[in-house]
């Protein structure tokens, strides 16, 4: 990440040295010997970050920091001075500086500070842009979904093409990725006049689910004191979402298959069938093909449902959507709570981007709702976020980084890689040990030394 840097220092030799070193790293550099000259350049040019001395003739570094914070609040300032002390650092930060370095500072340290400042500026601008988009409704939003990432755009492109058809759709993805939201979007775009009805196939036992889906007549079983219309009939003319279809009991699957093939429903205890006009959308976080191999799901039902498959990627694989979603949630929850919360601070945005979001969009929504409820300011800060988000240490393995702080020791690298493999393999320690090429007891010993509890 490079940008346009303004160096403000009356030491011509130092300025020349820095200008040469930064230019070799791809930065575009402009210089000023005095703060007054720098303020004029800031008004005339688009500067990404300012690097300034603290002690200069005329307008001093602290006064310059205050002026810059007022006139160009989105331009981060890094103070570089030979009179470094804790007191000077505190004064500079209070005056509006983003970072503080003491002379003599190595070029690599300066570059790291510049990269962080540029990232901070980018996040601030992104948060501001998203705030405007959500407020004006100009952002990429479709029936409750906020989409920026290419992966989600591809998914919605499929939705746009099949919404008006009567084709059955299978939506797959981890819990919390927005499968029901997408199903509602398909229904709303379908033009069907009937209702959208949803049922969770994993939430009730087989006998109750059968009655829920198909209905029953009075006296069909002990507790059937009155007739009941099933969800297939209730959704007539509309759409029925079979959520968590992968958890449907095996005994009920052939009955569902028959309804899908014949488009007719026989309530429990009834002597006759009646036709239904229902579009079926199924959703699951399960790998249905794997369940077919294990004999836990019918292959013929899978082929009947899986006419069009829409796969929703997890949030960690579409990080471009994190901040737009967070801003949308923030705006919605602030309005409900009657709080004047406008947006995210750049450090809070950075924490959201770094977190892995195992609970996906649902977890992000809960996180922002909590933060809005707790905050005392008009921006969400890092302290408003859940502790696990604040203190999150990524398990991803960094082998190439611009920031030297991202590199870790070999021991930490081994730990992160091991935990990432264990997570990917759903906690299967035998498979993890085999993948890592170590004995299972060795894996147990390592996990114990890292304080990872054995929950098996």
What is the secondary structure topology, with strand pairs?
Layout: E1 4-8, H1 12-24, E2 28-32, H2 35-44, E3 49-52, H3 61-71, E4 77-81, H4 86-95, E5 99-102, H5 107-136, E6 141-142, E7 145-146, H6 150-162, E8 169-172, H7 179-190, E9 196-200, H8 206-214, E10 215-216, E11 228-229, H9 231-234, E12 239-243, H10 253-262, E13 264-265, E14 274-275, E15 279-284, H11 288-293, H12 299-305, E16 308-311, H13 322-337, E17 343-344, H14 346-354, H15 360-374, E18 379-380, H16 387-390, H17 410-424, H18 429-436, H19 440-449
Parallel strand pairs: 1-2, 1-3, 3-4, 4-5, 8-15, 8-16, 9-12, 12-15, 17-18
Antiparallel strand pairs: 6-7, 10-11, 13-14
């Amino acid at each position: 990440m490079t940008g346009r840097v303004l160096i403000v220092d009356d030491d011509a030799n130092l300025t020349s040295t820095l200008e040469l070193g930064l230019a070799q790293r791809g930065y575009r550099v402009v210089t000023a010997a005095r703060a007054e000259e720098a303020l004029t350049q800031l008004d005339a040019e688009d500067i990404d970050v300012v690097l300034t001395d603290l002690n200069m003739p005329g307008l001093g570094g602290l006064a310059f920091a205050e002026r810059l914070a007022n006139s160009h609040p989105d331009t981060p300032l890094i103070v570089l001075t030979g009179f470094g002390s804790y007191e000077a650092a505190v004064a500079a930060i209070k005056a509006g500086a983003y970072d503080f370095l003491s002379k003599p500072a190595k070029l690599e340290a300066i570059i790291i500070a510049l990269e962080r400042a540029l990232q901070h500026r980018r996040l601030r601008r992104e948060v501001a842009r998203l705030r405007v988009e959500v407020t004006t409704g100009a952002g990429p939003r479709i029936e409750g979904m906020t989409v920026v990432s290419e992966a989600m755009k591809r998914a919605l492109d499929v939705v746009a093409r099949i919404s008006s058809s009567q084709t059955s759709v299978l939506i797959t993805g981890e819990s919390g990725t927005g499968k029901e939201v997408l199903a509602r979007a398909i229904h709303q775009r379908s033009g069907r006049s009937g209702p959208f009805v949803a049922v969770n196939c994993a939430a009730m036992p087989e006998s109750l689910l059968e009655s829920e889906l198909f209905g029953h007549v009075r006296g069909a079983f002990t507790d059937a004191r009155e007739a009941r219309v099933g969800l297939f009939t209730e959704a007539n003319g509309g759409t029925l979402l079979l959520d968590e279809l992968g958890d449907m009991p095996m005994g009920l699957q052939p009955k569902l298959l028959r309804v899908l093939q014949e488009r007719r429903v026989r309530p429990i205890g009834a002597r006759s069938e009646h036709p239904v006009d229902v579009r079926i959308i199924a959703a699951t976080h399960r790998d249905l093909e794997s369940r077919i191999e294990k004999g836990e799901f019918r292959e013929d039902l899978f082929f009947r449902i899986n006419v069009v498959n829409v796969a929703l990627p997890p949030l960690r694989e579409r990080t471009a959507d994190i901040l737009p979603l967070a801003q949308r949630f923030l705006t919605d929850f602030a309005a409900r709570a009657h709080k004047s919360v406008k947006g995210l601070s750049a450090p809070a945005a950075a924490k959201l981007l770094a977190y892995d979001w195992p609970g996906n969009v649902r977890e992000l929504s809960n996180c922002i709702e909590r933060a809005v409820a707790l905050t005392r300011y008009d921006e969400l800060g890092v302290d408003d976020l859940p502790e696990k988000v604040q203190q999150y240490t990524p398990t991803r393995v960094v082998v190439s980084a611009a920031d030297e702080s991202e590199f870790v020791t070999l021991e930490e690298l081994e730990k992160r890689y091991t935990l990432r493999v264990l997570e990917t393999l759903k906690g299967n320690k035998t498979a993890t040990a085999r993948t890592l090429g170590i004995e299972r007891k060795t894996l147990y010993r390592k996990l114990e030394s890292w304080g990872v509890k054995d929950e098996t």
